[in-house]
Structures
1.
Amino acid sequence: MGRGAHLRGMGALVNPLRSLILAAAGNDVIRRVVATAPVSRDVVRRFVAGETTADAIEVTRRLVDAGLSVTLDYLGEDTTDAGLAEQTVQAYVELLDELSAAGLAVRAEVSVKLTAVGQLLDEGLARENAARICAAADRAGTTVTLDMEDHTTTDSTLRVLADLRGTWPWVGAVLQSYLHRTEEDCGRLAGAGSRVRLCKGAYAEPAEVAFQDRQDVDLSYVRCTNALLAGDGYPMFATHDPRLVPIVDARADYHGRKPGSFEFQMLYGIRPDEQLRLSALGHTVRVYVPYGVQWYGYLMRRLAERPANTAFFLRALTSRK
Ligand SMILES: Cc1cc2nc3c(=O)[nH]c(=O)nc-3n(C[C@H](O)[C@H](O)[C@H](O)COP(=O)(O)OP(=O)(O)OC[C@H]3O[C@@H](n4cnc5c(N)ncnc54)[C@H](O)[C@@H]3O)c2cc1C
């Protein structure tokens, strides 16, 4: 969820405010107002754990206490500055040390965007930086998943994944059902022990590489679900879609998968009741928890996704409390 990451054009029909919010995301004046308004804090905190490692640990503890698992994302992407990439690595290493010290590493892993650790500068630098995060995760006793970004980075990200898996076979991949190539990628990555997150995909992608119609993206999601469940890997189904969740559940049943041999994933603050419901049924449910000072773009994308979120945001901004 990053570069060019407004959800696809068809979404604008569903939510006319989406383009307005996304335009606001690029506006520095609005950014300053939102970032400094005292009321923003509550709105931000609905979707973002906070700015510091301590905030991330606190939210993780609360979610774990509620029976959920967690993957933490230190916000930032598209770095073209090696110094910033280094800061990101250090933030992850500090976080992993703290998760371990707090006894939370068993239930909490991290999600890393390769563009935040130097992929746009040099694939080798991103690989080395990601390897340092993997080494810290290994020490902490947890895992790392490489987020998938826009399609120009897919091959590079899968190459880095393959390299890292040579040392740490538990490194997780992300595949996006909106890409034409993904069903085949699912087949390739469905081997024993392979952790694969399946999501619809969050970037604006051209018709040459991606399905443009919501229905086609959903149908592809179901085909990819089958491909992953038919294999011996560990699929992680990342979706809030109330139609897809029961389909995934039914397909898992069909493939003889027991809870624990796959998991559901949702974003922090989105359908929290559904997260608890699935968990109460015995499923592993992992919540994707973003934190860090660069929360603004992420927040704007979450608000743009849904009219109800937009209304919540506008109400909060205009309320006196
Ligand atoms: C854990 C996790 C990790 C992800 N990692 C990546 C990644 O690495 N790369 C990438 O490209 N994308 C990633 N995504 C984003 C993903 O690709 C989608 O953009 C996002 O999840 C929305 O798709 P959806 O499957 O929820 O369905 P959508 O088609 O967006 O929504 C379907 C339905 O879900 C519900 N819903 C969706 N969004 C909301 C909301 N904001 N509030 C309330 N209800 C909502 C509504 O009922 C909606 O009608 C990730 C998503 C999750 C959950």
2.
Amino acid sequence: MEAANGERERVFDAFRHWGYLEADLDPLGFLHPVPHPELQVEGESAQEARSVYCSTVGVEFMHIPDPARRRWIQDRLEGAQPEVDQQRALELLIRAELFELVLQQRYLGTKRFSLEGVTALIPLVDEILEGAAQHGAVELVMGMSHRGRLNVITHVAKRAPEEVFAGFEDVDPRSVLGGGDVKYHMGATGEYVTRSGAKIHIHLVSNPSHLEAVDPVTVGRTRAKQDRAGEEGSRKFLPLLVHGDGAFAGQGVFAETLNLADIPAYSVGGTLHVIVNNLIGFTTVPQELHSSRFAAQLARRQSVPIFHVNAEDVDAVIRIGRLALEYRYRFGSDVVIDLIGYRRHGHSEVDDPTITQPLLYKAIQEHPRLWEIYAEDSGLDGAQAQADAIKAELEAAQKRAGSMRKKPSLRQLPAYWNNYQGGRYKPQYEVETAVPADELHRLGERLSAYPQGFHIHPKVKKLLEQRAEMAVGKRAVDYGMAEALAFASLVKNGTPVRLSGQDSRRGTFNQRHSVLLDIEDEQEYVPLEHISEGQAHCRIYNSTLSEAGVVGFEYGYSRDYPEALVLWEAQFGDFANVAQAIIDQFVVAGEAKWNLLSGLVLLLPHGYEGQGPEHSSARIERFLQLAAMDNIQVCQPSTAAQYFHLLRRQALRSWRKPLVVFTPKSMLRHPEASSPIEEFSSGAFLKVRPDPEVNDARRLLLCTGKIAHELRVERKRKKIPGIAIITVEQLYPFPESDITAELQRHSNARDIVWVQEEPANMGALNYMLPRLRHLAREKHVLSVKRSASPSPATGSAKAHDVEQKALLSLALSTNGH
Ligand SMILES: Cc1ncc(C[n+]2csc(CCOP(=O)(O)OP(=O)(O)O)c2C)c(N)n1
Ligand SMILES: [Mg+2]
């Protein structure tokens, strides 16, 4: 008996490991099962195991190290299967299919990215929502790309079909000139009523064409909503990402997002992933799309179960949906459902797929529609009559859409956005950012204190002693302390702060030390979390080694936490370009495309210090090129106090705009960049900093950042008179009146010179010159910069020094350049 049990276990184990390879997963049969040597066994056990593991479901779960999790999955797969409400499933299928059909008939020749071939997605999500409601979910936060999106807006977000059809009708082009987005990118919100009558809010996130870019944004948005809800957050807010098979396997940003899953700073208690796997990407077949057998296998890098399911076994699809949902709630883990079907039409409906896949499309053309197959298999009566009625309903909706005057909005913003504004800058948005001296004093005490008996690192001890002196005016305040004071003053008054970046807790340049570590037991103490009773949280995290994923996440977070100061810090500003798609598609264009605001702050260390091509430039030029219609703020504060006021201004104004800050490296502790405490208890962020030392100059040097300090040192050393050095601390929105005021203050100046460290094709030069020329009227506007170059900086520290000296001497020469 025992031997027989052992044998049975052994056979089952082989099928648990490899059964998915022989499973019947492709409705059209193009994906051939791969016979596995360990499965070529006879007998009753093998038959039983085969019926579980090689049916229309194939599960990859034996790579999960935790036996409890494997056991959980195994028990559910091998045990009795739950009943399915087939009547409901049939109706959902008919609705999903006929929705596409009506679009096809009424709007022939337009793109809609039909779901046909994988319409089982709709009953799948229905079941996920049913399960989620039973766990107390109040909202599904969903990110997806083009495929089936309109169907999801209608059948998951529950927008009335006419609202979606209206997107296909002509609009007055004047309403969207230069802005807006195509209909299959816009977000949508709605209410879903589950089978058992529970209501779940649906939030489909706006996304760009860039596949998978919405993944980290969706997860970040979910996390913000969860944080707002407190302890029950991850139960109440469920994230669901729907992927294409090509994109899932190919796009790195997805891999970056998956890697965030179990990290406390980014965890959302498990994200559900559904791959709408039509076994094709545009014209490309799976063998060209991924090196693994299944696109889904990218997820095997982690302990994430993968459920492959044949999209034409709708009952199995529904059961797997429920299983995946239960697994997420039980283990707080990500789960992947690989829903394998086909694509009935071309990539879009204007594409002819018979050119690239003639045999596949011959098979598809002869293949019946899923609702017809399901009606027959389930033996339910009246399907055709039901289909006729639904079609008539949809056609009536289409007629109503045609007579709609205005395109309806498909979404409603949450109330927490009510108090914030976007659009153009207005001076009335300005707020007081100075903090009274006695308050700074108190904050300084809290920031430099730690518990009795805490074994502090001697270097950190010294730093805290210095910080204590800074707060009481015994020592100039440096950047690190300026930032700590800004954060402390904000959290004390109820503004949460969230900062993440690579090595940000200590700070790449050893400047932050936001987390103190006991050197004997590595216990942590975070002074910023001990500022006062009832303060808001100050959360500073080391991020994964990712840019696109993490910036996307933090952008998403900022979208659902406008009251918080949300910051992402690049290790060096150079690396921000790895997140370029998130910056281009969301951060700078989100408002123009979707009317969605964000107050995200990007901290980008920038400065030419001889550290080579990739540790010098945060690409000021790129951000300036992306700036229009006051969509972002681009700033380079040149002193600690300026940084303090800038951060507070960002948090306290009701104007929500992304803020790009070029932050210092070597200047972090430079005395020139430190500020007296009085500059924190009075004043505000100056968009342009005048030169207090020179009146009525002959030559005006305008610049940003570090080079201004170097110019001042050099001017002093050489005792050069008559040259004023003015820093433009806010490049965008362009501070026209502040610059004009400086030009007027030095109205006798002959030369106006833009000075920058960056090569001529980089930095702010091409942005500043035309503007300065416009303001300077008939005066000469010259420039001093490095020669144009494909690479931002030299790799030689010595060459850098030579270049830098030449820049300074050219800028300070009075012979005109
Ligand atoms: C980052 C990115 N690269 C390329 C494209 C162009 N593109 C749009 S859809 C598509 C194929 C997508 O295939 P898949 O992920 O399988 O989704 P499907 O259309 O099959 O649902 C491509 C290459 C894109 N939108 N985004
Ligand atoms: Mg595909």
